[in-house]
């Protein structure tokens, strides 16, 4: 199978230049290079986009709005795993699914960071195709990677829903984010929406994402998104391997949890948990989100605020 990838890769006219071969050869060992062949084929070129700014805030954008809901519903929005837990067999260890359990005070503190003010601007900053064009590294950064259409841009839009004027490009069809899009959250941290994995590669992917993961000094956490309604795909496994290779801390975010039945989601989640136990750098707890229903968004905001060092958590929270 690798042989086929290999042949297809080298028949791509974009990659037949010997100088490019040399650059790649110098930069990576042949083992890693072989994996890159596979990766490139999973990346899909885009053909356009539409812009999703000025849409107004979601009616559950703020935790205050959510806190007016009945307790059970609120708990499900805050900790989506709580809705699945009763359906798990007693023998399944729930511990790893509930490691990060901030208090309501922590969640409220974190939310302030995602609310713009005159002294705390939240905005699209810039886009870059190459690392040379990436902005300076003077604040902590988190990035979002995953297959095309997995819900990266939608998730960023949900996280930023308290700042609805932030311009976020959400693709209508897969693979449209071809650049790294940088967003500034005041002076606290930067968030980056990365181009997605797909069927075929935009030729700059290796230079962009792998170079980014390999060199970005201020990167404090990578969020690898996996579609909860379809479960782990081969491209996700390749992305997992890539994250392991770069040996930097990363976290799995399970998207679109509203889109399938709970039984399907649980099956996919347990399969994912098996894969996570075989990793070294992945945070054991996957974060479940629905950008549509806002489940898990408050928790993720709090986790991002925590890993970027923007808030101090209360004593009761483990992470
Ligand atoms: N049902 C559901 N659909 C979602 C969710 N998040 C994203 N989508 C849809 O999935 C598609 C791809 O989303 P997008 O954010 O552009 O994915 P990206 O290519 O990873 O940036 C769009 O049609 C979104 O409306 C979600 O939480 N639930
Ligand atoms: Mg996108």
TrEMBL record:
GO cellular component, one term: mitochondrion
Domain EngB-type G as annotated: residue spans: 138-310
InterPro entries referenced in this protein's UniProt entry, alphabetically: EngB_GTPase (IPR052279), G_ENGB_dom (IPR030393), GTP-bd (IPR006073), GTP-bd_ribosome_bio_YsxC (IPR019987), P-loop_NTPase (IPR027417)
Family, similarity comment: Belongs to the TRAFAC class TrmE-Era-EngA-EngB-Septin-like GTPase superfamily. EngB GTPase family.
UniProt key word Magnesium: yes
NCBIfam families to which the protein is assigned, alphabetical: GTPase_YsxC (TIGR03598)
Species this chain originates from: Oncorhynchus mykiss (Rainbow trout)
PANTHER family: GTP-BINDING PROTEIN 8
GO molecular function: GTP binding; metal ion binding
UniProtKB keywords: GTP-binding, Magnesium, Metal-binding, Nucleotide-binding
Keyword Ribosomal protein attributed: no
Protein name (Swiss-Prot/TrEMBL): GTP-binding protein 8
């Amino acid at each position: 199978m690798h042989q086929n990838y290999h042949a297809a890769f080298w028949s791509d006219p974009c990659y037949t230049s010997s100088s490019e071969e040399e650059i790649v050869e110098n930069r990576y060992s042949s083992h890693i290079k072989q994996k890159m062949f596979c990766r490139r084929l999973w990346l899909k070129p885009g053909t356009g986009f539409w812009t999703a700014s000025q849409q107004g805030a979601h009616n559950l954008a703020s935790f205050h709005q959510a806190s007016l809901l009945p307790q059970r519903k609120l708990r499900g929005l805050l900790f989506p795993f709580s809705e699945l837990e009763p359906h798990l067999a007693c023998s399944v260890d729930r511990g790893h699914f509930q490691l990060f359990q901030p208090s309501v005070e922590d969640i409220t503190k974190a939310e302030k960071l995602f609310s713009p003010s005159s002294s705390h601007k939240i905005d699209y900053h810039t886009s870059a195709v190459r690392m040379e064009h990436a902005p300076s590294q003077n604040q902590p950064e988190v990035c979002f990677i995953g297959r095309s259409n997995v819900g990266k841009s939608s998730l960023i839009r949900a996280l930023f829903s308290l700042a609805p004027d932030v311009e976020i490009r959400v693709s209508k069809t897969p693979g449209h984010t071809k650049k790294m899009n940088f967003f500034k959250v005041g002076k606290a941290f930067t968030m980056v929406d990365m181009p997605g994995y797909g069927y075929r590669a935009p030729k700059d992917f290796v230079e962009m994402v792998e170079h980014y993961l390999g060199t970005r000094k201020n990167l404090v956490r990578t969020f690898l998104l996996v579609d909860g309604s379809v479960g782990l795909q081969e491209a996700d496994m390749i992305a997992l391997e890539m994250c392991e290779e770069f040996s930097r801390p990363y976290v799995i975010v399970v998207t679109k949890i509203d889109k399938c039945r709970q039984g399907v989601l649980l099956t996919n989640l347990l399969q994912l948990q098996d894969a996570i136990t075989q990793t070294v750098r992945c945070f054991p707890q996957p974060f479940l989100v629905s950008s549509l229903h806002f489940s898990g968004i408050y928790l993720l905001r709090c986790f991002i605020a925590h890993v970027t060092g923007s808030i101090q958590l209360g004593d009761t929270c483990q992470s």
